[in-house]
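Supplementary Methods. Inverse-folding protocol.

Structures were first reduced to a C-alpha cell string of length 336. This string, shown here, constituted the complete conditioning input.
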C-alpha cells in the first residue's frame, strides 16, 4: 500500500514538473480583480445594456419579471422587489405568493400582477404556465420556511433552468440552496445575493468549513467555484461580486442605515438588469459575464438610492424612501 501511494506521488510530481508554466499558472490562478478604480468603467458597462426608450417598442419588450415569494408573515418583501423591478424599467411584474398573502400584496399597488398559488398542490404547474411570459425569476423575497412552499420553490427553480431563464435567489430562497446545493450547481444564469449571515450559512453547507473573515474575496471565489461558477453577490460594507473567475467590487457610496427591505430592492432591480444584460450582446459587455454586469448595476443603484434617501430622512429612512429615489438614482448613474 505504501509503495503504491509513493508511486502515485512520484508520478504526480513528475507530471507537474513537465507541465508548461502557462498551464500550471492557469490551473492555480483563480481570478482577475477589477479594483475600486474601475467603478466608472463598470458603470459604463451597465449604461451599455440599458435599452433605449423608443416609440416602436411594445409592452413586455423591456422586461417581464417574476417574484417567487410572499407568505402570511412577509408581504412587504415581494412588493418591494416587484415595484422596484417596474420602477427600474420592467414593463410587467408578477408575484407568485401564498393564498393568504395575495390580498395584502394586491392592496399595496395595482401595477403588480399577483398570483395566489405558491402553497397549492398545483403550484408548480400554475407557475409553469406563466414561464413563457417571464424573462427573469427572482426567488426568495418573503418566501418563509414552510416546507411545502420550499419544495414547490425547488421544483420551480428546476423548471426555470430547463427554459434557460435567469434566476436571482435571495433571502429564504437561499435556504433552498443551503438544503440542496445541487439545485443550482453549474447554472450559468443564476445569481445568489447573500448577506453576511446567509453567505456564512451557504459556505458552511457547501464547503463544510468555517469562513475566514480576513479573506472575503477568497471565500467568495471558493464558494462560487464549488457551486459550479454561479455568480454570487456578497453584500457588505463593499459589495463583492464573482462568477468564480472574476471579482468586481462595488464601492458606490451608501449610508450606515440598514433598514429591512434593501435586499429586496437589490434583487428586484437585478431581475430587470439581468434580462437587459443577457439580451444586450457580448460586444457591450467588454468580455464580462452578463451576470456580473447586471449585479454590479443593481448594487450601485441600491447604494445610490440608500445614499439619496439617507440625505433626506437620516435615521428615519425606510426602504419605501429608497424606492422613491429609484428614478433620480438611475438617471444619475446610468443616464447622465
Amino acid at each position: 500500500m505504501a509503495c503504491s501511494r509513493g508511486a502515485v506521488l512520484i508520478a504526480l510530481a513528475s507530471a507537474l514538473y513537465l507541465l508548461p508554466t502557462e498551464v500550471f499558472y492557469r490551473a492555480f490562478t483563480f481570478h482577475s480583480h477589477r479594483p475600486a478604480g474601475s467603478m466608472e468603467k463598470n458603470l459604463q458597462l451597465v449604461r451599455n445594456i440599458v435599452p433605449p426608450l423608443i416609440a416602436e417598442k411594445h409592452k413586455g419588450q423591456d422586461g417581464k419579471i417574476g417574484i417567487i415569494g410572499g407568505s402570511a408573515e412577509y408581504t412587504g418583501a415581494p412588493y418591494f422587489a416587484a415595484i422596484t423591478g417596474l420602477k427600474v424599467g420592467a414593463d410587467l411584474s408578477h408575484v407568485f405568493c401564498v393564498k393568504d398573502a395575495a390580498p395584502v400584496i394586491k392592496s399595496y399597488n395595482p401595477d403588480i400582477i399577483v398570483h395566489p398559488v405558491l402553497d397549492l398542490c398545483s403550484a408548480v404547474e400554475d407557475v409553469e404556465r406563466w414561464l413563457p411570459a417571464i424573462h427573469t425569476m427572482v426567488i426568495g423575497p418573503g418566501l418563509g420556511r414552510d416546507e411545502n412552499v420550499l419544495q414547490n420553490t425547488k421544483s420551480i427553480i428546476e423548471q426555470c433552468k430547463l427554459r434557460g431563464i435567469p434566476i436571482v435567489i435571495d433571502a429564504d430562497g437561499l435556504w433552498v440552496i443551503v438544503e440542496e446545493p445541487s439545485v443550482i450547481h453549474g447554472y450559468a444564469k443564476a445569481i445568489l445575493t447573500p448577506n453576511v449571515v446567509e453567505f456564512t450559512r451557504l459556505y458552511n453547507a457547501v464547503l463544510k468549513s468555517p469562513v475566514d473573515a480576513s479573506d472575503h474575496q477568497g471565500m467568495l471565489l471558493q464558494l462560487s467555484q464549488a457551486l459550479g461558477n454561479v455568480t454570487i453577490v456578497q453584500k457588505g460594507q463593499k459589495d463583492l461580486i464573482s462568477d468564480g473567475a472574476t471579482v468586481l467590487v462595488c464601492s458606490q457610496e451608501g449610508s450606515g442605515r440598514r433598514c429591512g427591505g434593501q435586499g429586496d430592492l437589490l434583487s428586484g432591480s437585478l431581475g430587470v438588469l439581468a434580462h437587459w444584460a443577457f439580451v444586450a450582446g457580448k460586444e457591450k459587455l467588454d468580455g464580462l459575464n452578463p451576470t456580473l454586469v447586471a449585479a454590479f448595476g443593481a448594487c450601485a443603484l441600491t447604494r445610490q438610492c440608500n445614499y439619496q434617501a439617507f440625505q433626506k430622512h437620516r435615521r428615519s429612512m425606510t426602504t419605501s424612501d429608497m424606492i422613491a429615489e429609484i428614478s433620480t438614482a438611475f438617471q444619475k448613474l446610468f443616464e447622465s
